[in-house]
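User: New here, any thoughts?
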Amino acid sequence: MYKKNALQGLAGLALATLLSLTGTRAQAQTFCVFDPLGTGGDYYSMFQDYQLAAKRWGVNIDLKVYPDDLQLDEAFKSGQCDMASMIGHHARLYNAFTGTLDAPSVIENYSEEREAMNLIASPKATKYMVSGGYEVVGVIPAGAAYPFVNDRRINSFLHATGKKVGVMEWDKTQTVMAEHFNVTPVPLPLIGLGPAFNTGKVDVIVVPVALYKALELNKGIGTTGGVIRRPLFCLTMQLVAHTGKFPPDFGQKSREYMNGQTDHALGIIHNLESGLDSHMWIYATRNNIEEWNTSMRSLLGKLMAQNFYDPRMVSILRRIRCKTDSNEPECAPTAEQRAEGYK
C-alpha cells in the first residue's frame, strides 16, 4: 500500500510539474511592433504572419502595435515588451553590430543588402547577435532612405547648405551628419518628420519611399520639390528581444525566418520605388556623384572615429561591396599590400 501511494504521489507530482511547464511555455510573450500606420500598416500585417510562424516553434506571441517609436522604446526598456521591432538606428542602441547595417555608405544597393541579410541569419553570426542583455532575433530591409526636398535646386545633399533638415531627435549620428553637410538640423520625433516637411517647417527629410503615401509627402514636395536619387543609407527593421525570455533556439529560428522574408520585402520596396512618378526623381551629374561618394566616405570616417558603429560590420560590408564592384576606391590595395604582391 505504501509503495502504491508513493508511486501515485510521484505520478501526481510529475503531472503537476508537466502542467506547470506547459503553462509557462503557453504563456504569451509580448511583441511590440513599430508601425506608423498602426494596425492598418504593412509591418503589423507582416508580423501577424510571424506570430503564426512562432506558434510552430512552440512560442505564443501577443502583438502590440506602437505608431510612435519613442513610446515603443520606453515600453521595451521598461520590460513591458519581451521583444520589439524597431528601425536599425534605434536597434544600434542595443546592438552596435547589427545597428551598423544602417550606417551611411556601408550598403550602396539592394544586392549588397541581400548578402548582408544572409550573413545575419547564418549560425556563424550568432555570437554577434547577443549584447548587453539583448538579442537581435531578426533583420529585414526597410528601404533606402532618400532626401525628400521642397526645392529641386537642391539636387544633392552637398547643395543643401543652410537648409533646414529634419533629424531624429534622439539619434546623435544625424547631428554629426548635419554638421558634415553644413545644414541646419531640426530635431524631431520620427512621426513628426512628415508633418514638418509638409508644412514647410523643414526643407529636407530623409526617409524611404515606403513612407511617401503614408505621410502624404506629396504635400511637402508640391510643384517645386522632388526626391534625390542618392540615398544617405539603407534602413532596416530589426527585432530585438530581452535575453532569457524565449527558448534557447528561438533566436536562430527567428533570424532564419526573417531572412526568408527578405526577397519579398525587397520586391515590395522595388515596386514602391518604381511606382513613384518619374518626374519626382532628381538625378545628380557624374561629377556630383563622385563628390558625393567621397563626402559619404568622409562622413562614415567621422562617425567611426566617434565609436557610433562597429568596425567589424563595416569591414564585412566593405568585403561584400568590393566583391560586387572591385573598382570602388576603398577596394584598391594599400601600398603595403601592393609591395606584398596583393591582388
Observations:
- The radius of gyration is 23 Å.
- Residues 6-25, 334-343 have pLDDT under 50 and may be disordered.
